[in-house]
Amino acid sequence: MKGYALTVALPKGRLFEKAYRALTSAGLDLPQPQDKRAMFFEKGDLALLLLRNADVPTYVDLGIADLGVVGKDNLVEAGRELYEPVDLGFGACRVSLIRRPEDHGPIRRLASKYPHIAELWLEQKGLSADVIKLHGNVELAALAGLADAVVDVVETGTTLKKAGLEEREVILKSTARLVVNKPALKLKAGRIRPLIERLREG
Amino acid sequence: MRPEGTRTYLGPEARAREALRSRLLHLFASWGYQPVELSALEPFDPAHPNAESAFKLVDKTGDVLMLRSEFTTALMRALAEAGALSGVARYRYAGPLWLREAPAELGRLREFTQVGAELVGVSSPAADAELLALAWEALEAAGVREAVLELGLPSFVRDLLEAARLGPEATERLRRAVDKKAVPELAELLDAYGVRGRVREAILALPDLYGGREVLAEARRYALSERAKLDLDWLEETLARLEPGIELLFDLGMARRYDYYSGLTFRAFSPAHGFPLLGGGRYDGAMVPFAAGFALGLERLIEATGAAPTAPERYLAASPEIARRLRQEGQVAILGHGGDEDALLAEARQVGARYVVFEDRVVEVEG
Prior knowledge:
Chain A is an alpha/beta fold.
């Protein structure tokens, strides 16, 4: 954003605390978000934006934020041209193909929060199926018969088992990544490059 | 309803676009670059770099056509068709391009305008230096503040990746990881493919070879092949020919389209804008033996520079003779449609003219 030396986009939710800590201990003097309902904070020449996970790549790609933290799952889903120089290691999860134990037939309908990842997987397997975009409770789509398979995030797998579903294939392993806007990495190398180096030493 | 990703321009915006476009073309012309006009309709060709993302139309013969999506390919094909590839030639162009797939976001339109220059029939550091200098002057002419030219050397990346001796698919995955500076993925891939030693070290260093001129010295340490060394020599000779004052950055990890670009590539950034304002490079052998060039994005330049030029003063002339005289003096004269003085004054207010010029006097319009 104009008027700030550096604008940082962080995801609200489960990645936030660790992302915030990683960046501050790497020397970035980020503002402390006091009011949890606010979305924008500033401190000195730094601005901090709190966004939904899936929106982080958009803000960084379009240069509103110079850098951000986002899960690899959302990064692949966004399909945007960003630099992703550091694997921050936390927020581990996997995006997997999930079906009911009794389902073994061809996949005709695939439901997912990640339609792009689902399409990429289908393409890679040489399969064709209708992909349905859902916004939550994706397991239900398989249980209720909306789709004959779903692509969803799995953290431990216990929720899945409880729901009576099976994880059939790991499509993508995800951890949190530092993402950087392409021109910003070059134009603000003086600030971003040392940050990347410290995060890598991490 | 207007199609997504298209715009129309009126008033100051249209004026700014016209002025900028002609300023850039005038600059290219003053460097000896010749005008070309290229058709917006092209035969569909699956080998075209934008074959997938271009707009397609069906001709009355049933043949598929594409809307022009890139000037360089169009120009090189036109030159090849006309048998106009002997000797050194300089070309300039300006016009709209169309891409079906580009999302309609900031600076990413589906219908956009580029102004560019190509230097054909010569391949040398001097030719590359000429294009860089011209690109820099174009940025100045456009009024871009704090512009930076960033230089890349995709052939250097290609040479290092080829040193790993992997198949095309593995090499392409490495290339993508290098281009995204995704060092974690890159390390994982190199492990998976069993790439070790100096080659691994060099490929892993690529994503971080960005910054000022010090990058070139660092790159020397990783130049494994004779060809990679020659690539760096070429780049340094090009730099030696540049006049001081051009702000330069380097990124030797830029790895886009290295099967197309044979040498130097470059783009321009400005802190005011999140996208490159200009892009170009050398593509010897891609379509013609020797050629390099660059293009500026008109919409992005306007966004990065902002200010629209003020409209020139307009005069309302009471007769055709007066109008002609004013125009000969270089003024903008609107021909008054007549009536008495009151009618002309009213008309002047309507068309935004500040003065009405009669045979014997000039009346300033009030309000």
